[in-house]
Design goal:
This protein is mostly beta strands. The chain contains one helix and ten strands. The strands form three sheets. It has a four-stranded antiparallel beta sheet with strand order 3-10-8-5, with no helix packed on it. A four-stranded antiparallel beta sheet has the order 7-6-4-9, with no helix packed on it. The chain has a two-stranded antiparallel sheet with strand order 1-2.
Amino acid sequence: MSQEHDWEELNIDDTVYPTRLTAKYRRRRAGAVEDASIIRAAVPGKILAVSVEPGSVVRRGQGLLVLEAMKMENTIMAVADGAVAKVHVTPGALVAKGDLLVELLRD
């Protein structure tokens, strides 16, 4: 079974890597954010650090917490500007996929 591949150039830190992208990869769709004020765990894991508290003003793209999943550290970022209404996790907490992590009050 063969897959259709197209060669692309991937540029990371001024280094160019030839990369083959599958047709399946090209057909993927971006994930939709249902409510930018509700931040949930996309994967199960362990909370390593929380860098915000209720009342903190955050900007889109700002790191809120670090979630370790499969030995990888993932910085969970705000997807909208706002203020932190509630933090539902603490460092060391184990979370399941879909668990509520942080709630924002949006501007």
